[in-house]
Amino acid sequence: MSRLVTRLIEAGILPKTGAFSRHLLVTRSDDSSEQYRLGIVDQLRSAGVPTEAFFERSDLGTQLKYADKKGFGFAVILKPGSTRTIELRDLTLRQQHPVSEAELLARLVAA
What total number of domains does the chain contain? Predict the structure, then answer.
């Protein structure tokens, strides 16, 4: 379904902003945090947050450009390593804030 919506946005049939601006991209940092990252994706989807996981091995800048091009409202950035630091980036305001796993969903619902 998210691929269909992406194609409709690209074709100009659906707006890039508005109702779809809450779509969220979970970025990829390293292989060691992949299970944790996919767990966050599952939690967000279960809570009704339209979420896409980035699977290609690319640097963070490339991933954020992809998110911006596709019209995502937010990106979840997981810092590499065992600390499991989460940054929530508002792609519209270009602001980024550290959040706990518990805060993540609350901030997205409030956005």
Answer: 1
* 41-67 confidence digits (pLDDT tens): 998 888 888 899 999 889 999 999 999
φ, ψ of residue 83 in degrees (nearest 5)? -75, -20
- By residue range, what is the domain housing residue 77? 21-110
Per-residue pLDDT at 18 exceeds 50: no
CATH of the domain at 56: 3.40.50.800
Q: Is 43 exposed, middle or buried (0-12, 13-18, 19+ CB in 10 A)?
A: middle
Read out DSSP for 10-73?
Answer: HTTSS-SSGGGGG-EEE----GGGHHHHHHHHHHHHHTT--EEE--S---HHHHHHHHHHHT-S
- Pull the structure tokens for residue 96: 């980024």
